[in-house]
Amino acid sequence: MDLTPGTETAAVIPGPATAYQDDIARYWDQEARPVNLRLGDVDGLYHHHYGIGDVEVDALGAAGDSEREKKVVAELHRLESAQADLLLDNLGQIPRDSMLVDAGCGRGGSMVMAHQRFGCRVEGLTLSAKQAEFANQRVRQLGFEKYVRSQVCNMLDMPFETGQAAASWNNESSMYVDLHDLFAEHARVLAVGGRYVTITGCWNPVYGQPSKWVSQINAHFECNIHSRREYLRAMADNRLVPNAVIDLTEATLPYWELRATSSLVTGIEEAFLSSYKDGSFQYLLIAADRV
Ligand code: SAH
User: Is the distance from CB of 224 to CB of 21 less than 8 angstroms?
Assistant: First the structure.
């Protein structure tokens, strides 16, 4: 299918359905924090997610270096792109003639990386018209518009045929929906044998219940963080069988430590660092096969 604007086959694109989704659409329409935009400006890949991996201290320059702020921004961006690379690593083999779904695609950074890696079609869904516009404009600048497209659409009601997608993912977007509804919809659009991957923060059932830090993160982002147990249960109930569960909590700490000392702080850094350290919150990748 040709994705050039104007040739879309979907007659109606389902947008936000509930009052909550309207609120979330508004939230992301208005979101323009430097921590997202300045990092994206580094190389044109705009992410709304966190980073993983060790900080290269040498890349930051010495204290007092006039370029230090710029170097910190570049380093944070390198870590957030490393996170997206890990998600794509876990999609497995993707033939060029495949279709991939980025559910909750934000400004499209992961979609562009997926197309660059696999050469295939990538369809993104977001509640925010501003984000979809931004992503599509960036895609046009790169000349990928025949392959990569973002649409305003509720990911619980995807505009795709049953079994159409070779793989699909949620990169930090599953905390806005009921997991049973979400995984039922991924299982519908995925081909049998297709791969689903999520990277997400989740509360740790070993801690007991959502900690005060987790509640603070929910209030900050107007979201509802699920537990690790809920993820695995909702997958099992929806024909998604985990093939890898990777705890990225240790790997994401350097990103947060660096961000907390930068000028890009948003005020939520303490909640992330404290909850990761007290064991109440985890940063997790789950890859599952659609059976
Ligand atoms: N995955 C992106 C963006 C994460 S931010 C990235 O890694 O950069 C969360 C995203 O989830 C936003 O784009 C928001 O619009 C989207 N989202 C939340 N609820 C959604 C829903 N019900 N349907 C589609 N997108 C949704």
Answer: no
